Amino acid sequence: MNGKQVIKILIRNGWEVLRVTGSHHRLGKNQDRTTVPVHGSRDLGPGPDPCDRKTDRSKIKMKPLYAAKITKDEDGYFLVTFPDLDEAITDGETMEEALFNAQEVLTLTIESRMDEGMDIPEPRRIKGKDIHYIAPVARVQAALLVHKARGERSLADLARALDTSWPSAQRLENPHHSPTLKILDKAAATLGKKLILSFE
Hints:
This protein has helices at about 5-10, 95-115, 140-150, 155-160, 165-170, 180-190; strands at about 15-20, 25-30, 30-35, 55-60, 65-70, 80, 90, 125, 130-135. By secondary structure, the chain is α+β, with helices and mostly antiparallel strands.
């Protein structure tokens, strides 16, 4: 069954499309969420195995790299699942396409969870030969990191410390907004952190 067919079935069963990013459709019904990749007429194959969670439970501090399990299916496609985010599923014809799609679906999932006020789990370090660590796009990383670093501190307190308006401080946690490095550096210092950039 391909992605379009799965979406039709979900819609008939009361689900609605909440957002589309690239080839990935995020659907919701009540409090449930799922993401369905639409990559042509390709069969989606099986979803993630909920029993397959080999972890050491240590957290990756302030580095939003999520473990993606990438396995090759019987048709030669690379299936991508995220153990920390069950609704984030995609695939690719090649490993390069699978990694590209993995970042796209991870970005969509975290962005949507932030927009919907849903919990975003801390990424876990997971061991295994099929594990690759994926980061969402930079603007989503920035919003997520500021949100996590702020913790219980109010946005008003952050705005005062940054000597800016409340809407400006709120934009720092907006996954659709791309703050400047200068503002991110100032926010990190205000929150007792350091901004460190790297190319990987």
